[in-house]
């Protein structure tokens, strides 16, 4: 904390002004230009200088929060489980900010030069962090083995570096604003933090509503870094240039020019980088890559006799020929019995609807999908629409763009004979509520007497505890269950009335990959992996491990 200066003796220069012919702290100050506590020689009036410093605080705070949100968003997209990623980033960054503030106390005698250097490095680290993380993921697959074992080293490293640099800003800015016009420490802190918090608000709102939808994660981070470098460099080199030696000015100008050159080059090459990264991640046969309002959708293959694969946010959603086995096993056992009214939760690719429409007697099938962009692609892409047999354009099919939880909550009781839950696996935090006891309670309410619910519960071999937690949650919601598997996909057929019969409709279509004996074997295989005694998952107590 900076102490107020003692009253100046009569005839001396007041605090905040410079002695004629000397640097701010007299000869021998910071590099011959002024030491800690000396008044800065400004090219503008004091009031203007304070306004410019607080404006710089505002912009730098906005940039800092954008870096933080970029790390959280990209880590959640690449690794899933946004709660864990946000906790790692936020806790490490807040800790590092404290360490950075302590470390920056040593730079107070060189506050202007120190702040300029901190901002140049922060602009480079924060601006390039998203591209570096994505590059490591794309070209090493499993983050070089760092993600799966121990701490998430790469994410922690960027969070730590960014937090250290953001924390170092505070004492340096405090020193600079006090050297413009000395005031009581409480007032200076209030002014500084007011500008900082308002800037953080603007950065926090700009990221989801401006940067992410219009620029994307990579370009948004690079542009933010460029703004950070320009504002930090302009503040020091324009307002506090008299505090810097000639050598310090040259070094800061060179550093900022180099940082801006790196960021500008990366921005110019970002499209080529994304294409190369997608090829490394998905193979060289990427045909469609688009960012919808909800997720990244990638299609590979689908022409020249190459099998089609659909990826959502980097995770394989459907691939020929395995998708046929999965969707037949998901849909056909649930269609044994009344099936005039069918609700498909998820399934925006139209593949579950394709199997539903193979059954005679379907009067109405409603697909509830949160991503309108995926639905448009499923209808318009020649390969994907051919694979789903144009099911979403069938007059019996209604597509509702809505959150599945909200749709169930707004539906009338006893509305559907069959509910098919074709949703992303529950290990992803964003979908955990769609595997909760409350969600299945809503599904039970909308089912007609004797109705059936089938749930895709994720990979059984890789995450058996998650699978059996879904089964336990269904039973807690009042369902009788019949667990089974298809390949590595864990599936659960459930009914609120009696234990559902795991068999095919004898009067229905004949699946190409499924038989009654195969279903019986799939049920026995699933039963051998049972983990008893697992508690159910709820909205307030989610139990699915990442």
UniProtKB/TrEMBL annotation:
GO MF term list: spermidine synthase activity
Name used for this protein in its record: Polyamine aminopropyltransferase
Lipid bilayer topology: Multi-pass membrane protein
Assembly information from the UniProt record: Homodimer or homotetramer.
Enzymatic class: transferase
Regions of compositional bias (Low complexity) in chain numbering: 520-530
Pathway assigned to this chain's UniProt record: Amine and polyamine biosynthesis; spermidine biosynthesis; spermidine from putrescine: step 1/1
Recorded catalytic activity of this chain's protein: S-adenosyl 3-(methylsulfanyl)propylamine + putrescine = S-methyl-5'-thioadenosine + spermidine + H(+)
Keywords for this protein: Cell membrane, Membrane, Polyamine biosynthesis, Spermidine biosynthesis, Transferase, Transmembrane, Transmembrane helix
Biased composition, class Pro residues, residue ranges: 1-13
Residue span of region Disordered: 1-39, 500-546
Biased composition (Gly residues): 23-38
Catalytic residue positions: 422
Keyword Ligase in annotation: no
Subcellular location per the Swiss-Prot or TrEMBL entry: Cell membrane
Annotated EC: 2.5.1.16
PABS domain mapped to chain residues: 261-507
Family: Belongs to the spermidine/spermine synthase family.
Transmembrane annotation, as ranges: 51-77, 83-104, 116-141, 153-177, 189-212, 218-239, 251-270
Function: Catalyzes the irreversible transfer of a propylamine group from the amino donor S-adenosylmethioninamine (decarboxy-AdoMet) to putrescine (1,4-diaminobutane) to yield spermidine.
InterPro entries, alphabetized: MFS_trans_sf, PABS, PABS_CS, SAM-dependent_MTases_sf, Spermi_synthase
Major subcellular site: membrane
HAMAP family: Spermidine_synth
PROSITE patterns in the record: PABS_1 (PS01330), PABS_2 (PS51006)
Residues reported to bind S-methyl-5'-thioadenosine: 295, 369
Residues annotated for spermidine binding in this entry: 327, 349
